[in-house]
Amino acid sequence: MSSSFSEECTPAKQKYDTCFNDWYVNKFLKGDIHNRECDDLFYEYKQCLFKALKVKKVEPLLEAARKED
Amino acid sequence: MSVYKDESEFDAPWENISSAWLRRYPNPYSSHVVSADVLERYIDEKGRLHTERLLVKQGRVPRWASELLNVSKSYILERSIIDANKRELLSETFNIDHLKLLKAMEYNRYQPSQEDSSKTSITTLAQFASPLRLGLGRRVQKYCLKRFPEQLIGSRRGILYVLQKYKSFS
């Protein structure tokens, strides 16, 4: 399983990834798209990730890329 | 701008390929991809899964690039739309830094092969545009174009590697 670009987020990311991978194969691909069992784990992971994107100054790069769309 | 097009086929059903694609990092053929983060993920009104990921690539930078701009790391944005009904995965990837040197875009479409729906066909389109002047830009684009087929083989081997590793898919 891949790491987060910010080391301290890797545990939360891997927990979320495990949930998502299982959801993708066993729910999404089988047409069960309304099941949201990984939302809480995604939220936790995102809290960590978005803080890190700010601290490590990646946010401006993302904003510039989105502006170009 | 330089453009590269390619079509290929995987001897595995679309469901397995799309699962492997989503979890293709890390793999020994993409050791330069050091991290993959999910920035955004949602299901749209048509039931399609949208994902935006941030990839960080490290090392493996040509000497002229590191000399020119002190490049050793690059941030890549990857967006995908997965339609399980249509059995289609669309992706686009592009760098969001070092844009003064190069903008590299890659588009892929994965869908069941027309002749045999237990196989998966991939269509790839890559574009390289460098804003550098004095003929340098053209050289950069040419360099990328020359290296791309090899990278493509690597990324496909990576997907197959992950596919083998998780044989229990779906």
* Mean pLDDT over the full residue set of chain A: 94
Residues in helices of chain B, as a percent range: 25-40%
How many domains would you count in the coordinates of chain A? Answer: 1
> Number of folding domains of chain B?
1
Organism (chain B): Schizosaccharomyces octosporus (strain yFS286)
Domain PRELI/MSF1 (chain B): 1-170
Protein name (chain B): Intermembrane space protein sorting protein
InterPro entries (chain B): PRELI/MSF1_dom, Slowmo/Ups
What is the gist of this entry?
Chain A has helices spanning 10-26, 39-55, 59-68. Chain A is an all-alpha fold and 69 residues long.
Q: Can you give a write-up of this model?
A:
The complex is a heterodimer of chains A (about 70) and B (about 170). With about 70 residues, chain A is an all-alpha fold. Chain A has one domain. Helices cover about 65% and strands about 0% of the residues of chain A. Chain A has three helices and no strands. The mean pLDDT of chain A is about 95. By secondary structure, chain B is of the alpha+beta class. Chain B has one domain: Alpha-D-Glucose-1,6-Bisphosphate, Chain A, domain 4, CATH 3.30.530.20. Chain B has helices at about 15-20, 65-70, 135-165; strands spanning about 1-10, 35-45, 50-60, 75-85, 90-95, 105-110, 120-130. Chain B has a seven-stranded antiparallel β-sheet. In chain B, a hairpin with a 5-residue loop joins strand 2 and strand 3 (about 50-60). The longest helix of chain B has 30 residues, at about 135-165. The model of chain B has no long low-confidence stretch (mean pLDDT about 90). The chains are: A mainly alpha (about 70), B alpha+beta (about 170). Chains A and B meet through helix 1, helix 2 and helix 3 of A and helix 1, strand 2, strand 3 and strand 4 of B.
Question: Topology of this structure?
Answer:
The complex is a heterodimer of chains A (69) and B (170).
Chain A: H1 10-26, H2 39-55, H3 59-68
Helix pairs in contact in A: 1-2
Chain B: E1 2-10, H1 14-22, E2 33-43, E3 49-58, H2 63-69, E4 73-83, E5 88-95, E6 103-112, E7 120-129, H3 136-165
Antiparallel strand pairs in B: 1-7, 2-3, 3-4, 4-5, 5-6, 6-7
Helix pairs in contact in B: 1-3
